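Thread: quick sanity check before group meeting

JM: Hey all, I'm pulling together slides for Thursday and realized we never actually wrote out the predicted structure for the chain we discussed last week. Dropping the sequence here so it's in one place. If anyone has concerns about the input, flag it before I start.
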Amino acid sequence: MSKPNMIKTYRLQKAWSQEQLSEFSGVSVRTIQRLEKGGQGALETLKAIAATLEVDIQKLQNMPNTEEANMNTSHASEPQDPEAIKLAQAKAEVQELKGFYAHLSTYALVMLLLTAINLFFSPDYLWVLWPMMGWGIAIINHALGVFNIWPKFGKDWEEKQIQKRLKK
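JM (edit): ok, ran it. Output follows.
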C-alpha cells in the first residue's frame, strides 16, 4: 500500500498535475488518484512513478509483507534505472517544447487574422500592433523559460521556490 499523499507530495514538488504525472510515467490518471488516496499499487506501477518522480521506490511504499520487503531490499542497493529517469526527463522537456510551439502557432494564426481584419476595416490605423506586442512579450517570456535562455526564472529557480514553500 502506498503511503497516503507521498506520491502527491513528490508530484507537487515538481509542480505537476496528475495528468502530467500520468503522461510522463505511463500510469493511468485513475491509478494515480487511487494511489494518492492511499490505495495499493503494483510494484511495476510504483517503480514507474518512482522513476518519473526521481525518488527511491521505498519512499512511495510501506513494507507490509515479507515478499514485498524481500523484493524491495534486493533493489534497495541498486541505483534507480538511469534510462527511466532520462526518459521521464526527456518526456517532460518534449511536453514543454510542444506547449511552446502550440503557443507560438496560436499567436501566429491569431495575429494573421487580426492583421487581415485591421487592414480590411481600418487600414489607416494599425491597432493590430498593440496586441501583437503584448502577446509577443508573452511569447518571448515563454521561449526564455522553455529554452532556458535567461535562467533567472528557469527550472532551478522554480524548484528552489517549491522547496522553500514546502519547508514552511
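AS: nice. Confidence is low (pLDDT under 50) at residues 63-79. The domain at 6-76 is CATH 1.10.260.40 (434 Repressor (Amino-terminal Domain)).
JM: adding both to the slides.
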